[in-house]
Structure formats: C-alpha cells, structure tokens
Specification:
It is a single chain. The protein is of the alpha+beta class and about 160 residues long. It has one domain: Beta-Lactamase. The chain has four helices and five strands; from the N terminus they run E-E-H-E-E-E-H-H-H. The protein has helices at about 30-50, 100-115, 135-140, 150-155; strands at about 5-10, 15-20, 55, 60-70, 85-95. Strands 2-1-5-4-3 form a five-stranded antiparallel sheet, with helices on both faces. Strand 1 (about 5-10) and strand 2 (about 15-20) form a beta hairpin. Helix 2 (about 100-115) packs antiparallel against helix 3 (about 135-140). The chain is globular and about 50 Å long.
Length: about 160
C-alpha cells in the first residue's frame, strides 16, 4: 500500500504536485492532461451522478480526490469579495489504498494548506513557487505511505 503522487489544484491550475515514485508518474506526464482528467471526472460526477466522487479505481491504481470551495475575504484586482475558488487535493496510489485511510489524510493536507496559506482565495492566481515549501507537509502527513514497498523493506535494515 503506497502513494505515488499527491497534488493540489486551484481553480483548475496545478499549483503543486509531489511524485513519490519517480518511475510511476501514473496519471499523466503532463500537468495539463492530469488537470483535464481530474476536471472531467469531477464535472461528470456532479452532472451525471449528482454527487461528489471521492475516489476512482483504475486497473492498477486508485485516484482519491478531496474538493472544497474557498471564498475570497476581500476584493482585489484578481477577485471580488465572496468569489469562489475551487480547491482540489488529489492522491494517486496502488489499489490496496483504502478510502478510510486516505480521506482523513487529504482532509489534514487541506487543513494545513489553508492554515499555511490563509489568503489563497484572495489571490488564487499568485506565483505558484510560493507553494513549494508545502512539500514537507505532504511528507509529514502521508508519512511512510509515500514509500514504495521496496523502500520500506530497505529501511528495515
């Protein structure tokens, strides 16, 4: 049971993704393709199923999604007061990952992200390099789930 990738998308733009298993960038080598696929899954679930999808199972891996909306707390040259910003946190892992394990972790990532960047809804189109310092938070929250089985075995010795 391991995670190969985790990321954050803000208003359809990938602002941060962290790949744990460099050989298995599963969802898409291109961030635009990944975002398009996630956007299509989310819109399909809302339009066709009339509900949110929290995970999606493929043949060799699972995709877990946590969505939320943030409201701008002030008006700026980028947003108006109350304007909605869509926040998507995703995680890709092997098929053994369980929704009951991953959901609380994604909620923790969301909570820590909003705590670290409380004004993200007020300036959603800011410089994405500011978010790179969040990567250690991914590592801390996901703990050893980011390690492949081989890495975990090697850590024992």
């Amino acid at each position: 049971m391991f995670i190969s990738e985790v990321g954050i998308i803000l208003n359809g733009v990938s602002i941060l993704n962290h790949i744990y298993d460099k050989g298995k960038n599963i969802l898409a080598q291109n961030a635009d393709l990944r975002n398009s696929l996630l956007d299509a899954i989310l819109k399909m679930s809302a339009a066709v199923l009339n509900e949110e999808i929290h995970h999606f199972t493929f043949k060799k891996y699972k995709l877990f999604i946590k969505t939320s909306t943030l409201k701008a707390t002030k008006t700026s040259n980028v947003v108006k007061f109350g304007q909605i910003t869509d926040l998507v946190i995703y995680c890709i892992g092997d098929t053994e990952l369980n929704q009951n394990i991953i959901s609380p972790l994604l909620a923790s990532i969301e909570e820590e992200f909003i705590k670290m960047y409380p004004d993200v809804a007020d300036n959603p189109s800011g410089d994405i390099s500011q978010y790179y310092k969040f990567v250690p938070t991914f590592d801390r929250i996901l703990s050893d789930l980011g390690a492949s089985p081989q890495d975990r075995f090697e850590d024992l010795f």
